[in-house]
Amino acid sequence: xxxVDPIARQHTLRALATxxxxxxxxxxxxxxxxxxxxxxxxxxxxxxLPDPEATGKYASSVxxxxxxxxxxxxxxxxxxxxxxxxxxxxxxxxxxxWSEVGAAQTRATLANYDAWLTYAKETSERFMAREKEDxxxx
Length: 138
Known about the structure:
Elements: H1 6-9, H2 11-19, H3 25-33, E1 46-48, H4 52-63, E2 67-73, E3 78-83, E4 92-95, H5 102-105, E5 106-110, H6 113-137
Antiparallel strand pairs: 1-2, 2-3, 3-4, 4-5
């Protein structure tokens, strides 16, 4: 994974502020605490996106509404995005933008960032269990 430019790393924060959408406090805290070129601790394979601006337009077209991507499950075709069609704390949609089937592109719609953290932890546990099974089979 390429090193993350600190300016690109702040894109989502600036975009939320520009839209007048409150930034989830836990997201801001985690973004500051996670080194730019490391995964999110305890949430493997989730990483904060190195350049969410580059992904935003494409993710919005897949989601069918304006979104701000903020994290990706590297190697698992999932991108977590804040929905920007609200003036309250944003809800989150998890998409697979590489899926060819429209309905399969949206994997989860979650009430807020805290709900995404629970989802990310659950998916992380499944990914880790699957990788352990694959390693045991070899």
